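Service request form, structural biology core

Requester: graduate student, group of Dr. S.
Request type: structure prediction, single chain
Budget code: on file
Notes: please return the result as structure tokens.

Sequence provided:
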Amino acid sequence: MTSYGGLIFVLGLALLLPILFMVASSFLGPRRSTSEKMVPYESGILPQGLVSSRIPVKYYLVAVLFLVFDVEVVFLFPWGVLFKKLGVPGLWEMILFLAVLVVGLIYVWRKGALEWE
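Core staff response, request fulfilled:
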């Protein structure tokens, strides 16, 4: 249990600090809302169009693709650090992992998900 003490402390701190900041913000922040504060912020200029306009699905597709390939990098960094310890089996596992990702990238490319029109 002592080896997990630091991890439990960091997780507890990660949960406690945002809650503490939200509570402090609700007590210390201003409570008056004016009509100017209720207008959505668009880079300092007046909003154009309806607030409830639809967002194209293409944005969501790009976001999901970004997450998939970003998670790939999360797996590549530890592998790079432990490359010598893992040896040849670790190399083959990473080659298989990257091959699956390349097949997925080719599929997405052929479907036209990377083309912005």
